[in-house]
Amino acid sequence: MCLFAEKVGWTMQRSEERLVEEFCKEVGVRREVLQVWMHNNKRTLGKRDRATRSRNHKPR
């Protein structure tokens, strides 16, 4: 779920509704469950992911 949340930017936009529906069906969770999980983990996992990406970024 973390990879999916990163992919959609930790928010569920109306324009990505089909993608969200497909993911929920594949994983076996309701949309509401995914939404709550993303809300609860956005600060901790989202920050960690951004920090990892910035450390791995190599300046030109």
TrEMBL record:
<dbReference type="GO" id="GO:0000976">
    <property type="term" value="F:transcription cis-regulatory region binding"/>
</dbReference>
<dbReference type="InterPro" id="IPR006455">
    <property type="entry name" value="Homeodomain_ZF_HD"/>
</dbReference>
<protein>
    <submittedName>
        <fullName>Octamer-binding transcription factor</fullName>
    </submittedName>
</protein>
<dbReference type="InterPro" id="IPR009057">
    <property type="entry name" value="Homeodomain-like_sf"/>
</dbReference>
<dbReference type="GO" id="GO:0050793">
    <property type="term" value="P:regulation of developmental process"/>
</dbReference>
<dbReference type="GO" id="GO:0005634">
    <property type="term" value="C:nucleus"/>
</dbReference>
<dbReference type="GO" id="GO:0003700">
    <property type="term" value="F:DNA-binding transcription factor activity"/>
</dbReference>
